[in-house]
């Protein structure tokens, strides 16, 4: 059985770059690894609806915190069997966003913290009811909100298919979401968390050593 590793963080934090570095180091060591990013916009109808709602489609769907959260959750539920198969076939399965994204963004939209009712509801839905695979470790890629926002704006300017959606362009939401993420990480919500400095250079060798172990390392970089 492989290890399930999740990368979480704000829009523009650099999750894709971190995933690329981890995968390169794993493969350099001869390890079998694969990756998936949520939402699966090109693969799942629920994720398609999310993308459309974030850009003003489907009436007031985008304004419904719980409605959007259910769509995100159903996307992951639809991928659960594939995740289990990948864990059987690989040493490491790396996810760009997972259940904690739903918890953090929804709580931030409702101006709640990590101890609030929304986070408990997400856990009841996705962890208890849907029975999604539990991560071995969750990595919070921490960057200042202003840095993440500038990276997202740069991505929008330089990549034709990466226009910011309504969540990404809401600076207040991103700030509150960062606070909830920090609380989830401090509480080791659902599984152990490690905070990775998203501004400093990442030592991918040391990070993969950590992922290979069961050591408690709350911070890297």
Automatic annotation (TrEMBL):
Key word Kinase present in the record? yes
Cited InterPro entries: P-loop_NTPase (IPR027417), Thymidylate_kin-like_dom (IPR039430), Thymidylate_kinase (IPR018094)
Report keywords, A-Z: ATP-binding, Kinase, Nucleotide biosynthesis, Nucleotide-binding, Transferase
Q: Which Pfam families match?
A: Thymidylate_kin
Q: EC class of this enzyme?
A: transferase
Q: Which GO terms describe its molecular function?
A: dTMP kinase activity
Is Transferase there in the keyword field? yes
Q: Which residues form the Thymidylate kinase-like domain?
A: 7-185
Chemical reaction(s) catalysed: dTMP + ATP = dTDP + ADP
User: For this protein, what is the EC number?
Assistant: 2.7.4.9
The record's similarity note reads: Belongs to the thymidylate kinase family.
PANTHER family attached to this UniProt entry: THYMIDYLATE KINASE, UMP-CMP KINASE 2, MITOCHONDRIAL
What role does it play? Phosphorylation of dTMP to form dTDP in both de novo and salvage pathways of dTTP synthesis.
Q: What is this protein called?
A: Thymidylate kinase
Which species expresses this protein natively? Saccharopolyspora cebuensis
Q: What is the lineage of its organism?
A: Bacteria, Bacillati, Actinomycetota, Actinomycetes, Pseudonocardiales
């Amino acid at each position: 059985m492989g290890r399930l590793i999740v990368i979480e963080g704000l829009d523009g934090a650099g999750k894709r770059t971190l995933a690329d570095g981890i995968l390169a180091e794993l493969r350099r060591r001869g390890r079998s690894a694969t990756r998936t990013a949520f939402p699966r916009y090109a693969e799942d109808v629920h994720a398609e609806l999310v993308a459309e709602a974030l850009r003003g489609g489907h009436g007031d769907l985008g304004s419904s915190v719980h409605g959007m959260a259910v769509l995100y959750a159903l996307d992951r539920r639809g991928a659960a069997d594939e995740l289990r198969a990948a864990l059987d076939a690989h040493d490491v399965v790396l996810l760009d966003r997972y259940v904690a994204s739903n918890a953090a963004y929804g709580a931030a939209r409702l101006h709640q913290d990590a101890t609030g009712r929304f986070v408990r509801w997400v856990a009841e839905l996705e962890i208890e009811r849907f029975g999604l695979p539990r991560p071995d470790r969750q990595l919070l890629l921490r960057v200042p909100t202003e840095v993440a926002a500038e990276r997202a704006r740069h991505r929008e300017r330089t990549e034709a298919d990466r226009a910011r959606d309504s969540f990404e362009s809401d600076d207040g939401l991103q700030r509150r979401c960062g606070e909830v993420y920090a609380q989830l990480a401090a509480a080791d919500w659902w599984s152990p968390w490690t905070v990775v400095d998203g501004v400093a250079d990442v030592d991918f060798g040391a990070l993969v050593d950590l992922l290979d172990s069961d050591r408690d390392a709350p911070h890297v970089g």
